[in-house]
Every structure is written in structure tokens, then in C-alpha cells.
Design a protein that fits this description.
about 270 residues; alpha/beta; Rossmann fold; 10 helices
């Protein structure tokens, strides 16, 4: 059901791969709420995924861009403003990849070249997106930028590997850049710490099924799914949240406030 919360707004969605992606769901919802968008992902991801199907559904142009490349990002913003007819009102950064995690390199024996790639792709790309947008004056006043995060930025989840550091850096960049962009253009910058979600990327984390079910039993509302996340992004992109910035917002069914739940106690007690 549309509430026309984003009527006339324009934005870029980073990271949609297939129908299980949070970015995919977000793209569908923002368009349903009246927004016009462009879609982007790294060229290799575009070859692996189904983004052209999403583009057709959303009447959106796909603009390939490596989010670690400043020249690619400049091209993306310039083409997006040309295609959409002006400055942008929102950006979703849904990007994360760890070569160490993919190659099962233990955290305590990390490959540092891989580690640097994790930080560059999963966190520094957020800074590069914001820096490029500011340089090109690509965002309207009161625009909203969201980076998707996870609670491993604050708490230890052994299977999450060096992505935990990347998410911590992502959240710090949102606070730091949010200050500067807020002062300069009233642009809002936040991160959303999402429940473990069944996506192509998330499912590759060691032990994902176990902590997905653990989080679901720990959270009084259960895990927030990708559709829930898309709805939350719509609200954060809308004018209803104009004074929310520099925050890490937990969207996790209450998990982040829990110590232990009765369901977990009963499981551990064998009841």
C-alpha cells in the first residue's frame, strides 16, 4: 500500500543483486511510494545478478559503478542527475564484501590485503559516495543517506570475521560525515543496523543459520525481514524524519536491547 511518502523524490539505490537483496526490496518500495531511481552495482555483480529485471519493474536505469572508484562514482552521480532531471533526495548504500570471509580465512590469521579490500568495499566506499555527492553538489537540502549495518559493529559474532570492523567504520563515517554534510546542506546521514536477514551475501557468513534463529528467539518481535527494512528506509528517506541524522538505528525486533529471552532460557534448559 502506497502512502505517497516519496512523491517526486529522486535517488540512487546501491547493491541490488537479486530478489533476496535488501536493496532490491528497498528499490521496489521507494518507487511504490512515488520516487524515481537509478540502480547501481559493481560490473561483476551486475553480471551475477538479476538487476535488469528490477530495473524494468521500477522503470529505472542501471548505471554500473565500482563504489571504490571515485571516477566511477562521479560518472554515476552525473548520469543519475541527468537521467532523473535534477539533484537527488536519497541514497541507499547496501554494499558489503569480505574476501577473508568468502575464502574462509580465520579472523586470527587474517590476510591483510583482503582485510584492506573489506574496509575499502564495505566502509570507505560510503565515505567516497558522500564525498563525491558533496563535491558535485548532487544532493538537495534535507536529502537522506542510509548505510546498512549490523550489530557486529558493537558485539562479537565470531563468524562475521573482518566485516565487523567494516561495519564499525561505516557507522563512524555516518557520524563524522553526517556532521559536515548537515552543516553544509542539511543532508541527513544514518546507518540502519538490521536483523540477520536471509540474503545472498548474508547467507555466506559462517554459522548464519544458527545466529539467524538465535536472534529470532531472542528478539521479542522476531527478526525484521528485508521487506520490513525497505519500509524503514522509506520512512528515513521521507520528510517525516527530517531531524534524524548521525544515528545508528537498530531495526532488529528488539534484539539490541535484550540480555536473554525466555525462549533461549528454555532451549538451554532442555525444556
Amino acid at each position: 500500500m502506497s502512502h505517497h511518502l516519496l512523491q517526486g523524490k529522486k535517488g540512487i539505490i546501491f547493491g541490488a543483486l537479486d530478489e533476496r537483496s535488501m536493496a532490491w526490496k528497498a528499490a521496489q518500495r521507494v518507487v511504490e511510494e512515488g520516487a524515481s531511481i537509478t540502480l547501481t552495482n559493481a560490473p561483476i555483480a551486475l553480471r551475477m545478478g538479476k538487476i535488469n529485471e528490477l530495473a524494468k519493474e521500477c522503470n529505472a536505469e542501471v548505471i554500473p559503478a565500482d563504489a571504490t572508484s571515485l571516477s566511477d562514482l562521479e560518472d554515476l552521480f552525473s548520469k543519475s542527475m541527468e537521467k532523473l532531471g535534477g539533484k537527488l533526495d536519497f541514497i541507499l548504500h547496501s554494499i558489503g564484501m569480505s574476501p577473508n570471509l568468502r575464502k574462509n580465512v580465520p579472523y586470527t590469521a587474517t590476510n591483510y590485503d583482503n582485510f584492506q579490500k573489506t574496509l575499502d568495499i564495505s566502509a570507505l566506499s560510503f565515505h567516497k559516495v558522500l564525498q563525491t555527492a558533496m563535491k558535485l553538489d548532487a544532493l538537495n537540502e534535507w536529502a537522506s543517506v542510509i548505510g546498512l549495518s549490523y550489530i557486529a559493529a558493537q558485539r562479537t559474532f565470531p563468524g562475521y570475521n573482518d566485516m565487523a570492523e567494516a561495519k564499525a567504520l561505516l557507522e563512524s563515517i555516518a557520524r563524522s560525515f553526517g556532521y559536515h554534510y548537515g552543516n553544509k546542506r542539511k543532508v541527513r546521514v544514518n546507518t540502519v543496523s538490521q536483523s540477520p536477514t536471509v540474503t545472498t551475501a548474508g547467507s555466506g557468513v559462517s554459522g548464519f543459520d544458527a545466529f539467524f534463529h538465535y536472534a529470532d528467539k531472542m528478539s521479542p518481535l522476531g527478526n525484521a525481514n528485508a521487506d520490513d527494512c525497505a519500509n524503514f528506509c522509506v520512512v528515513l528517506f521521507s520528510d517525516l524524519t527530517r531531524m534524524v541524522t548521525m544515528q545508528n538505528l537498530y531495526h532488529d525486533g528488539g534484539f539490541s536491547s535484550m540480555g536473554v529471552s525466555q525462549a533461549i532460557v528454555e532451549d538451554m534448559s532442555g525444556r
